[in-house]
Amino acid sequence: MNERPIDLYKQATEFAYNSIGKEHSNTAYFQGTIAGKFAELIVRECAVLCRWEHEAHAMLEHFGVAE
After folding, report:
1. Is residue 31 packed enough to be buried (19+ CB in 10 Å), middle (13-18) or exposed (0-12)?
2. Tens digits of pLDDT across the chain (67 residues)
3. Which residues contact 40 (CB under 8 A, 6 or more apart)?
4. Domains of the chain, residue spans
5. Among 1, 18, 29, 45, which residue carries the largest CB count within 10 Å?
6. Is the dihedral of CA 48, 67, 61, 65 positive or negative?
7. Stated pTM of the model
8. What is the 3-state secondary structure (H, E, C) of 3-67?
9. Which residues contact 34 (CB under 8 A, 6 or more apart)?
10. Quick check: 38 and 12 in contact, CB under 8 A?
11. Nearest to 35 by CA among 27, 3, 61
């Protein structure tokens, strides 16, 4: 299995801990923050893999991820 998704999920979890705090880790808001950041990181990773710059920009714009 590719380890990159696991790394991205760990980054998203760390972001949630730093943004919200560990004491709120059992809340739906905390889990939603992880999910949202994980999705953003995946979109960014995909944009990096695009062959042409305009494709990367279009993908980021489509998913509402600021550059």
Report:
1. middle
2. 679 899 999 999 999 999 999 888 889 999 999 999 999 999 888 888 776 677 777 878 877 776 5
3. 63, 65
4. 4-62
5. 45
6. positive
7. 0.76
8. CHHHHHHHHHHHHHHHHHCHHHCCCHHHHHHHHHHHHHHHHHHHHHHCCCHHHHHHHHHHCCCCC
9. 9, 12, 13, 15, 16
10. yes
11. 27
The token pair at 48 is 């990096």
CA–CA distance, 33 with 39 (Å, rounded to integer): 10
Say which residue the tokens 């949630």 belong to. Answer: 16
39: nearest Cα among 4, 18, 65:
65
Q: Report residue 1 as tokens.
A: 């299995």
